[in-house]
Amino acid sequence: MDDSGLSRRIxxxxxxxxxxxxxxxxxxxxxVKPGHYTLETGSGASTIAFLEAGAQHIAVSPDAAExxxxxxxxxxxxxxxxxxxxxxxxxxxxLPFLPEDLQLDAxxxxxxxxxxxxxxxxxxxxxxxxxxxVMLIDDVDLWSGAMLVDFLKDEPGxxxxxxxxxxxxxxxxxxxxxxxxxxxxxxxxxxxKWRQRARKVGNFADLVVRGEFxxxxxxxxxERQRAASGS
Length: 231
Ligand SMILES: C[S@@+](CC[C@H](N)C(=O)[O-])C[C@H]1O[C@@H](n2cnc3c(N)ncnc32)[C@H](O)[C@@H]1O
What we know:
- The chain starts with 5 loop residues before the first helix and ends with a helix.
- 45% of the residues lie in helices and 19% in strands.
- It has helices at 6-10, 22-31, 45-52, 64-77, 91-94, 117-126, 143-154, 186-209, 213-229; strands spanning 37-41, 56-61, 84-88, 104-109, 129-138, 158-162, 168-173.
- It has a seven-stranded mixed β-sheet, sandwiched between helices.
- It has two domains: 6-179, 3-Layer(aba) Sandwich (Rossmann fold), CATH 3.40.50; 183-229.
- Helix 8 (186-209) packs antiparallel against helix 9.
- The structure holds S-adenosylmethionine.
- S-adenosylmethionine binds next to helix 3, strand 2 and helix 5.
- S-adenosylmethionine (SAM) binds next to helix 3, strand 2 and helix 5.
């Protein structure tokens, strides 16, 4: 069926550019197989692509009008509305309460784009993805999405498959999901270690300037012990 006007029909108060790009929707249609379990934050043309691929699909959006317009579109296209589980509400309130054993095959993060929503969506979706599953993150030209992409590119357990149009980053999760401490996250660690050291040197200098030499030496000794123990 012709997709022109699809986004305008679904996002009535929104904009045509809201729709996930044709390229990214083609990726969904090619990679999602009938019976796959899938999830997206936000809804729209992408929801239709997941249903066209035959997925058992959850869409999470606060806009009930989008759900109603989608149900109408699904009817017009002869798609199976039973395969869509549309949850009306903001993803930050809905995702934490989804069943923990979902075993998702594919996820699209394209709901709220303000900080930290893409990262919040990533966390709760990733916890429910199975190894080998793919995640698409849309609008990664926005900082809130770009920071997540930069983090994942350095993170073991995630493989960057590409970013078509510079807009939709696609990752494969290659290992079971694990939320690590910052010292075990290469991206976080690399961007934190010098800031942390600078702060400690600054605190040491303050103590010396104030003449609190024994406290300053105690701190140095503690750091020496911490470095020796590798903690
Ligand atoms: C860019 S549009 C999504 C476009 C859609 N993927 C498509 O292909 O047409 C952003 C979506 O996020 C939804 N949204 C806004 N804030 C949200 C939130 N906190 N949680 C989930 N969805 C949200 C909007 O209602 C809208 O559906």
